[in-house]
Design a protein that fits this description.
FAD; alpha+beta; 36% helix; Alpha-Beta Plaits; 5-stranded antiparallel sheet; 7-stranded antiparallel sheet; FAD/FMN-containing dehydrogenase; 17 helices; Uridine Diphospho-n-acetylenolpyruvylglucosamine Reductase, domain 2; FAD binding; 466 residues; FAD-bd_PCMH-like_sf
């Protein structure tokens, strides 16, 4: 064994160092199978002290580090390159509950805990951790923080940035930032933990977090509604906010093309197919039946298409399963050019109309699948063509992206609303981000990681030198 790897094994134990191709293969390929790397090895530390020792060792030997959680990134943010010289640090062994304080509604967990495990810990304590993602069974808290994940309940609870009270982070030189405070108010200087949320492991390695908990809702009112168009959907969103305030937890939209695709692979499960479908959920304390009746009474005053209300938890879960099946159904149907974009909710209808017109002019026969979290303006806007098997789909990717992103930024939006930037979108970020913001990002990277060893090849690297 080479001296460097022998030193790694001495820190974490030989059984936690993976070097054989059959053992490292799962860490070398991204979720969408677009990026294939070749790691030097995979290290699985079991404590913050071991992570700190690893980063000190890597800096001394000039070995680059790729932090990896559940490996659910859709933009190659956690994939090593093909050089065979980057050490993947997997966090699955850092999965402990450190503290839970129900009086303060806070919980401290390690970064390798899966989101589903954290949700269950909160529920067992009679509390809610509201982040909810389709990948929650495998994605890890460190990855959620590193991409500032949002998911299905941002409308009410916010992204991971809003859900985070404190962090523990190992810096590239091995020093440990201890900021696991559970305070909600602290004006003692700059809030430095915010640097690491959304940084995709390029400034340091998050090892633990203190997060907000909320009262566990006891009442839900969930409805699948049909509307005549995206403008009607956004008008409904505004009216629901006015009527129900922060009890409106979720507002999801799905185009007719998405509904037709779901019906193709899940026949008989959709309640109906309309120009647009909306999944609405209210949550509160008290009794579900009373909340459901409030929603029914209010909907009776609106002009809508078909609608279905969930009268039981089983019916509620069936409606949610339809929404959560969309991404996997599209993957099953074939490749697509995916966009994780965000625009102000009020701009969604005009963006959709303008972008469809522009793409149709440029690519006759284009198929657009638009769905997502309209309550916070985050759309999954995915493109495929009618050509057989979409064989040459990605040859057109840059041209498609240029059209989509130009319109996104015309409407004051973003090209990365919740999945991060990774190695997929760095050059686009450089084109559209404010130049001064880019300069500040480069300066922070240089300050914290002057040797460029933390997750190289991702978007901060793509920004280049000033």
């Amino acid at each position: 064994m080479p001296p460097f790897l022998a030193a790694v094994a001495a820190i974490i134990g030989p059984q936690h160092l993976l070097t054989q191709p059959q053992d490292t293969a799962a860490y070398a390929l991204d979720y969408r199978r677009r990026y294939q790397g070749l790691p030097l090895a995979v290290a699985l530390p079991g404590s913050t002290a071991e992570v700190a020792a690893l980063l000190q060792l890597c800096q001394a030997h000039q070995v680059a580090v790729v932090p990896q959680g559940g490996n659910t990134s859709t933009c190659g943010a956690a994939t090593p390159d093909a050089s065979g010289r980057q050490l993947v640090i997997g966090l699955r062994r850092l999965n402990r509950l450190r503290a839970i304080d129900t009086a303060n509604d806070s919980i401290t967990v390690e970064a390798g805990m899966t989101l589903a495990q954290l949700q269950q810990l909160a529920a067992d304590a009679g509390r809610l951790f509201p982040l909810s993602l389709a990948s929650e069974g495998s994605c890890q808290i460190g990855g959620n923080l590193s991409t500032n994940a949002g998911g299905l309940a941002v409308l009410r609870y916010g992204t991971m940035r809003e859900l985070t009270l404190g962090l523990e982070v190992v810096l590239p030189d091995g020093r440990v930032l201890h900021q696991l405070s559970a305070l909600r108010k602290d004006t003692s200087g700059l809030d430095v933990k915010q640097l690491f949320i959304g940084a995709e492991g390029q400034l340091g390695l998050i090892t633990a977090a203190t997060l907000k908990l909320f009262p566990l809702p006891t009442a839900h009112a969930t409805a699948w509604l049909g509307v005549a168009g995206s403008q009607a959907a956004i008008a409904l969103l505004s009216a629901l906010r006015q009527a129900f305030g922060d009890r409106l937890t979720t507002f999801e939209i799905m185009s007719q093309a998405c509904q037709q695709l779901l019906d193709k692979y899940h026949p008989g499960q959709l309640p109906f197919i309309q120009p647009w479908a909306v999944l609405v959920e209210l949550s509160d304390s008290g009794d579900s039946q009373a909340l459901q009746q409030q929603l029914v009474d209010w909907l009776a005053t609106q002009t809508l298409g078909d609608g279905v209300l969930a009268h039981s938890e089983a019916e509620r879960q069936r409606l949610w399963q339809l929404r959560e099946a969309m991404s996997e159904t599209q993957k099953r149907d074939g490749p697509s050019i995916k966009h994780d974009i965000g625009v102000p909710s009020s701009a969604i209808p005009v963006f959709l109309a303008e972008c469809e017109a522009a793409l149709t002019r440029a690519f006759p026969g284009v198929r657009i699948l638009a769905f997502g979290h309209a309550g916070d303006g985050n759309l999954h806007y995915n493109i495929s063509f009618t050509r057989p098997d979409n064989a040459d789909l990605f040859e057109d990717e840059d041209s498609v992206n240029a059209i989509v992103y130009e319109l996104v930024y015309r409407h004051q939006g973003t090209l990365a609303a919740e999945h991060g930037v990774g190695q997929l979108k760095g050059h686009w970020l450089q084109r559209y981000q404010d130049p001064l913001a880019l300069q500040l990002m480069r300066s922070i990277k240089q300050l914290l990681d002057p040797q460029g060893l933390m997750n190289p090849g991702k978007w901060l690297s793509a920004l280049g030198d000033e």
